[in-house]
Design goal:
By secondary structure, this protein is an alpha/beta fold. The protein has two domains: about 210 residues, P-loop containing nucleotide triphosphate hydrolases (Rossmann fold); about 70 residues, Alpha-Beta Plaits, CATH 3.30.70. The chain has eleven helices and 13 strands. Helix 4 crosses helix 5 and helix 9 packs antiparallel against helix 10. The relative contact order is 0.13.
């Protein structure tokens, strides 16, 4: 999947403003961003449902807009909700969709794969939110897609169904299926995605593996343990922080809210040495994908 200089404008608003993406075969690639950031427009252009204003877009070597019919036979799209006839049942819906493809997957196999065998004859209107999502995933897979677009794939699922869905996604990737995932579940993105692009205000503000993204942000918190009741004023003075940012949160447990650095650790050690207090443990905060997401999207507001 190749995207260069992608732009889309609605009136005076730049929904997508020069996005570049390169997604390899078998990758699970996450596209994250706050509401209105441009991620939905970007994905709809990749799927061939929206025409770009400018830029180059190739999916499986095809132009999604100009070669839409050829491309749609080779991709699968899982929407978050809507579009299914409420009176139909899961098995007959899968059989109906299978008729649209030359070499479809087996509807019964897919129903078993997503764990809906017991609901095969239940009208869609009576499915729970999580069951509906699992049916949507099965429908996205019915055409044996080479590229799969997933929008909030585990929304409404219970923990067991979520774990099963994650296993399906990982297995598809191992089989060479390219997966583009959009989700607000940052833990899900961190678990599944080999690479992630964070989009805000129509532009990619960060891209890389979860480790690369989280490694670029130092979580501003250090926790150390020692004897209880230490006078922290000297440490606060040396670090130039106030009482709220350097405090005892429990007997013998101390938190320093400041950017983690070797200098901060040295100040803590010097402080404890001065008061002949033992260092029992010390841990510096590890940034999460949520930390990165919030920092990057806040910086552009």
């Amino acid at each position: 999947m190749h995207v260069r200089g992608l732009k889309k404008q609605y009136g005076s608003r730049n929904a997508v403003n020069g996005i570049d993406l390169e997604i390899g075969v078998g990758e699970v690639f996450g596209i994250l961003g706050p509401n209105g950031a441009g991620k939905t427009t970007t994905v709809e252009i990749l799927e061939g449902y929206r025409k770009p204003d400018s830029g180059t877009v190739k999916v499986l070597g095809l132009d999604p807009w100009g070669d839409g019919d050829a491309l749609k036979a080779r991709i699968g799209v899982m929407l978050q909700s809507g579009g299914l006839s409420p009176g139909l049942k899961p098995l007959e819906t899968l059989r109906l969709y299978a008729a649209f493809y030359q070499s479809p997957d087996d509807p019964k196999r897919l129903l078993d794969l997503v764990g809906l065998n017991d609901s095969a004859q239940t009208p869609i209107r009576r499915l729970s939110g999580g069951q509906y999502q699992r049916l949507s995933l099965a429908l996205a897979l019915i055409g044996r897609p080479e590229v799969l677009f997933l929008d909030e794939p585990t929304a409404g699922m219970d923990p067991r169904a979520r774990a099963t869905t994650w296993e399906i996604i990982q297995a598809l990737s191992a089989q060479g299926v390219t997966i583009v995932l959009t989700t607000h579940n940052l833990s899900e993105a961190e678990t599944l995605c080999g690479r992630i692009a964070i989009i805000d205000r129509g532009s990619v503000v960060a891209e890389g593996s979860p480790d690369e993204l989280t490694g670029a942000v130092l979580h501003p918190e250090t926790v150390f343990t020692s004897i209880a009741g230490l006078n922290l004023d000297p440490l606060r003075m040396s670090l130039a922080v106030n009482a709220d940012a350097c405090r005892e949160t429990a007997d013998g447990t101390y938190v320093v809210e400041a950017p983690t650095s070797t200098g901060l650790v040295r100040e803590v050690l010097d402080f404890l040495t001065e008061f002949d207090a033992p260092l029992l443990s010390l841990a510096t905060g590890q940034a999460t994908l949520e930390d990165v997401f919030l920092q990057l999207t806040e910086e552009t507001e």
